[in-house]
UniProtKB/TrEMBL annotation:
Official protein name in the record: YqaE/Pmp3 family membrane protein
Transmembrane parts of this sequence: 12-31, 37-60
Keyword Transmembrane helix applies: yes
Localization, UniProt: Membrane
PANTHER family xref list: HYDROPHOBIC PROTEIN RCI2 LOW TEMPERATURE AND SALT RESPONSIVE PROTEIN LTI6 -RELATED, UPF0057 MEMBRANE PROTEIN ZK632.10-RELATED
UniProt KW keywords: Membrane, Transmembrane, Transmembrane helix
Family according to the record: Belongs to the UPF0057 (PMP3) family.
Source organism, top-level taxon: Bacteria
Any single Gene Ontology cellular-component annotation: membrane
Family annotation (Pfam families): Pmp3
InterPro entries: PMP3
Main subcellular location: membrane
Gene source species: Rufibacter glacialis
Amino acid sequence: MRHALRETNALSDIVMIVLAILLPPLAVFLHEGLGSRFWISILLTLLFFIPGVIFALLVVTDSI
């Protein structure tokens, strides 16, 4: 049971990371909800795509 739970968590982490690369604001929204980090992600992605991706990866991996 625990092994399956770890695999599910690992799979969801991988999906969130891929989503953060492809659609950064959506990944931040699914991880954090509709808060200030979501709006920062929207702004960074619209102005400069790469910083938006980096910010989303940091949020999704709980690095910030």
